[in-house]
What we know:
Layout: H1 2-13, H2 20-31, H3 36-44, H4 49-84, H5 103-116, E1 121-122, E2 128-130, H6 131-134, E3 154-155, E4 158-163, H7 168-177, E5 182-191, E6 203-213, H8 218-233, E7 239-246, E8 249-258, E9 275-284, H9 286-291, E10 300-307, H10 308-316, H11 323-326, H12 329-332
Parallel strand pairs: 1-5
Antiparallel strand pairs: 2-4, 3-4, 5-6, 6-10, 7-8, 8-9, 9-10
Bound molecules: ligand 2U9.
Ligand 2U9 is lined by residues 166, 168, 171-172, 206, 208, 210, 246, 248-249, 279-282, 284, 288, 303-307.
Amino acid sequence: MLDKIKALREEIKQLTAQTADEAEHLRIKYLSKKGIISELFNDFKTIPSEQKREVGQVINVLKNEAQEFINGLKEQFADTQVKGAGVDLTLPGTVMKLGSRHPLSLVRNEIVNIFARLGFNISEGPEIEDDFHVFTALNFPEEHPARDMQDTFFIEKDPDVLLRTHTSSVQVRVMEKTQPPIRSIFPGRVFRNEAISARAHCIFHQVEGLYIDENVSFADLKQTLLYFAKEMFGEKTQIRLRPSYFPFTEPSAEMDISCTLCGGKGCNVCKYTGWVEILGCGMVDPHVLEYSNIDSEKYTGFAFGMGIERITMLKYQIKDIRLFFENDVRFLEQFKASI
Ligand code: 2U9
């Protein structure tokens, strides 16, 4: 048995491995439970008891030597693998650069959340629309300039197909399908055939709102918009309503807020008036209710609409609308918010 162990010691000293896998195979061959050295311990049980002490010691020495030798073979590969890949595992990891939300998304979410607190739900609809939902159902007369190709993008082959110029078409679709009470907010992208400048773009975003029920009054409209203005621009914000005209509301108004920059004292943002226009609104014209089969004797409603770009420009004092569409990261990464 001692001769066998001696031969095995010599054999192990000669072992070589070219890869980490080969070294692992050697470990299994000699040191695993069913390996050659473990088998020696089985033979050990059969030798005479007076030899047990000496043979036991020699087998243990062999086992330790084999473990050390084969571990050495393995470590050699672990070392070259890391060195070969040029990896310094002590260096800190590469930090992933997080993106930021687009300012228009931030403001859209903020607007939607304010109205959600008043019980408004969100509705969305198609950007490619037909004449009825964009114009006719909203009481636009046949000769209204918005129906002109100068103002609206039409599909050449079919003048009944166009890009929506406001999200009011979604309100029409909701009214067609739902009887009041309706209390919804309508965010979305709209298209107008306008020359691009610092103040106007042919693509922009709107949020419109609609509330139809029995006994909805102009006072409800005013209070809702006052709440919105204070939540959006701060508790001290004041509002004023000026008479206006839209085909789909009667009476109609435009709403100003006290200037967010000077607080109403006068500055170049409010052109020294103390007030800045932020939205249009009014009581839904009874004809518009009837177009969508809502009983205008029983129900009344208010509606409002605002441009998200305009609100965002005011809130963050952005001077040029084109910045929203250029995707310049130096602009975009300034808007880090958690919503
Ligand atoms: C229905 C009935 C009424 C939505 C309204 C405005 C006034 C308005 C403009 C603000 C700036 C559009 O983005 S903007 O150019 N909007 O002034 N919008 S009332 O009225 C509706 C909508 C749908 C069925």
